[in-house]
Amino acid sequence: QVQLVESGGGLVQPGGSLRLSCAASGFTFSMYFMRWYRQAPGKERELVAHITNGGGSTNYADSVKGRFTISRDNAKNMVYLQMNSLKPEDTAVYYCNRFPSPGSWGQGTQVTVSS
User: Fold this and answer.
1) 3-state helix, strand and coil shares in percent for the chain, rounded to the nearest 5
2) Secondary structure tally for the chain: helices H, strands E
3) Distance between alpha carbon 5 and the CA centroid of its chain, in Å?
4) What does the pLDDT profile of the chain (115 residues) look like in tens digits?
């Protein structure tokens, strides 16, 4: 079955950086687009970034464009989210999932941006 394990979150000051990782298993990773989502307290889960199966095309939410970069390593079944110039409004639990046919959500990784 699809398994997704996110890691790399933490507490960072505004303007700082973090790199999130997602280890995927249970499916043919290289055949799927991958996405990062986030869910802030009291809000719905939102799509943050998207990458095609070969990594040749990416898309971002307007709120993170120019600050976040999604990438993947198909040899390692990993997808990453490099987050720079972090803002307090980026505070959320971050999740990865495949697209289409998302699997069960992992536990996510908490990102807290605060001074």
Assistant:
1) 5, 50, 45
2) 0, 10
3) 11
4) 999 999 999 999 999 999 999 999 999 999 999 999 999 999 999 999 999 999 999 999 999 999 999 999 999 999 999 999 999 999 999 999 999 989 899 999 999 999 9
